[in-house]
Amino acid sequence: MTDRPATPLLDTIASPADLRGLSDRQLRQVADELRAETISAVSETGGHLGAGLGVVELTVALHAVFEAPRDKIIWDVSHQSYPHKILTGRRDRIRTLRMKGGLSGFTKRSESPYDPFGAAHSSTSISAALGFAVARDLGGAPEHGIGDAIAVIGDGSISAGMAYEAMNNAGHLKKRLIVVLNDNEMSIAPPVGAMSAYLSRLYAGKAYHGLKDAVRLLPGPLQEGAKRAKDLFKQFTLGGTLFEELGFSYIGPLDGHNLDQLLPVLRGVRSHAHGPVLLHVITQKGKGYRPAEGAADKGHATGRFDLVTGKQHKAPSNAPSYTKVFAQALIDEASRDDRVVAVTAAMPDGTGLNLFAERFPARCFDVAIAEQHGVTFCAGLAAGGMKPFCAMYSTFLQRGYDQVVHDVAIQRLPVRFAIDRAGLVGADGATHAGSFDIAYLTNLPGFVVMAAADEAELVHMVATAAAHDEGPIAFRYPRGEGVGLEMPERGVPLQIGKGRIMREGADIAILSFGTRLSEVLAACETLDQQGIAPTVADARFAKPLDRDLILQLARHHRVLITIEEGAVGGFGSHVAQLLSEEGVFDRGLVFRSMVLPDIFIDQASPEDMYAVAGMNAADIVARVRALVDAGANAARRA
Ligand SMILES: Cc1ncc(C[n+]2csc(CCOP(=O)(O)OP(=O)(O)O)c2C)c(N)n1
């Protein structure tokens, strides 16, 4: 008889309830299969790999011990939720991760009842879990009830102020609430800050050894009766940690890859927890896949890759990324002016400031995942006579908005905002789209707001920002590569509030703000062939507006169209306001504004997203043609 391969246990798991009938030994097998399935799926889709691999055992343990969806398991950031998705009825779609019409790369309420709370920005999980705990105690959701509220938060994400605001509130309310601190000693980059150092001290301290001894006392997983679990739970509760001072029972640190530790402790917590509990779990980012374990970012995010070698399949490109162009231009400015400093909130590689830090280590500050602090820190630096460049993604700067208004704008402090990932971002979807910065900055008095139309413009905008000491100034640029232009030797400051004419035509003018300019120019080639020759201008500034340029375009053309990769309320709205105040509409100007649609666009390829947004050259051609045809019809009728 030949040995038939055993059916993978994972194949029998349609929902987490199926885990609850398994022995601890079988759960270990499920964990191994789940890890393999996660690696295999991400090799096909790309995405966040390292974080999920680090929580495979934790995911199995949480779902085996707790009863989702009644118990609410809330993953912070939720980039580590792929194993959770596989166990919660989405295995059949896991190879559609981050694709158009597929699974989101993050938790999403509309996707599954097992995703009680959506995320992608960090450090929200404890607040949300506390909300569920209070809702439970006040009788919310009476149809199904709410069981436990469990937040799983990483050591990087717990560096943000919001996490402490939540713990402060939780310690005061004393509701039963479980926080699992998933400590892998990594953020995207190695974590920074005093909190990270504190967690390392806890990890290195007595508690860990105490725990190992205690676990050894257990004859086996089957012998964890309620009493034993209770004793265990008590033994592990140590006094004196920061978390205890905040009103949490602290348990740990545990080995987060050892189900023999995780399962009994979680069972103990489930049976006996009163009030808020913090379970400190030590894990390894990228665990179980050598290429990820060995990567500098522990496999944080990856494109599609070869399973055996771990090598990523990536189309080569010669054009430099906007991020890199920004970093090099900033290094150039900093080499001439030692007051230039740079600030990132836990994204040194993503913003290119890793390159800046190599050159100017003492003038580069990674403040951890702390955008609010980062912005006000820059305000302080500016007040102290420095020239701070606050480099953040558009979507994450949202978190520091009151600081932008209150600490920077009202005090007219010359903080330079380098806004990366402006516009649509592709596979990360709606949570990461940089849609709102134009709108949320152009309404602030005294702000200068620029958008680079191409990578050469970005170099000039870095120089413009460096030279601008009169107040706050921002420049935005997209994810991805430039158009492959010849780069200027050095940046030359632009005249504030002045745009440029790119080509002259008649009848129709298109005024572009940002990198859609290349699509506008491509559209013009098609329109030229159809006998329509628009004037095209690059506004460069959404604030202050180039009034002269705009009014001149309005005067000399029958139709004016603005285009920007941002939500309504931004550049086009300000142009409309100007035109209406100047009475231009009364004189018959036809005006249209092309902005992102008033929806949150789900993940897709950038091309698909632009198609949904109607922002491609073909869409611009269609817009212009419709206006020309309408004009011709009106003329015929008249
Ligand atoms: C507000 C905010 N800023 C920045 C990010 C980008 N970001 C995504 S994951 C991550 C690191 C999170 O580290 P940690 O919580 O330790 O999780 P790990 O990836 O190590 O599992 C960062 C900085 C974000 N998601 N949200």
Number of domains: 3
- The residue fraction in helices comes out at 40-55%
Largest sheet: 7 strands, mixed
| Count of separate DSSP helical elements | 25
Low-confidence stretches are 206-230
**Mean model confidence by pLDDT:** 92
Query: What characteristic shape results from the CA principal axes?
Result: globular
Query: Which cofactors or ions or other ligands sit in this model?
Result: thiamine diphosphate
Give the strand line-up of the largest sheet. 8-7-9-10-12-11-16
Assign the CATH topology of the largest domain. Answer: Rossmann fold
Proportion in β-strands = 5-15%
Give the strand tally. Answer: 18
Q: What structural class do the secondary elements suggest? A: alpha/beta
End-to-end separation in angstroms reads: 91 Å
Short description:
It is built from 25 helices and 18 strands.
Q: Key features?
A:
638 residues; alpha/beta; Rossmann fold; 3 domains; seven-stranded mixed sheet; 18 strands; globular; binds thiamine diphosphate
Structure in words:
The protein has 638 residues and is an alpha/beta fold. The protein has 3 domains: 9-293, Rossmann fold, CATH 3.40.50.970; 322-476, 3-Layer(aba) Sandwich (Rossmann fold), CATH 3.40.50; 501-637, Rossmann fold (3-Layer(aba) Sandwich). 41% of the residues lie in helices and 14% in strands. It is built from 25 helices and 18 strands. The strands form 3 sheets. Strands 8-7-9-10-12-11-16 form a 7-stranded mixed sheet, sandwiched between helices. It has a 6-stranded mixed sheet with strand order 1-2-3-6-5-4, sandwiched between helices. α11 (259-272) links the parallel β5 (249-255) and β6 (276-282). It starts with 23 loop residues before the first helix and ends with a helix. The model is unreliable at 206-230 (pLDDT under 50). Bound molecules: thiamine diphosphate. Thiamine diphosphate (TPP) binds at residues 51, 54, 77, 79-80, 121-122, 154-157, 184, 186-188, 285, 300, 345-347, 369, 371, 396, 399. Thiamine diphosphate binds next to α2.
